[in-house]
Amino acid sequence: MNEETNTRTITPEALAHLGGGRLAYVKVIRSEDVPNLFPQAPQVAPGLQLFALHAADGTPIMLTDSREAAVANAWSHELETVSLH
Fold it and tell me: Residue 63's domain spans which residues?
């Protein structure tokens, strides 16, 4: 079997519906990446490690300075956080 036959593509729409639309993940980001992910966010000092909560399809939901706050926000919105590898 070649590698091409093992590759599967999932659409953003299908990702958004994983787990009934109730899955999210937390991603570590640099403060320099904030304007691209959260254009409405105020300016953030460079060189900071932040945590972004994303919907299963990659849509950014919220930004915080702690993983615990991101997970708590997911929980308060009845989202289950999953690990990505």
Answer: 3-81
- Reported pTM: 0.76
Encode 58-79: b = buried (16+ Cβ within 10 Å), e = exposed.
eebbbbbeebeebbebbeeeeb
- Specify the length of the chain in residues: 85
Q: Which amino acid is at 82?
A: V
pLDDT, tens digit, 9 for 90 and up, residues 60-80: 999 999 999 999 999 999 999
Total domains present in the chain = 1
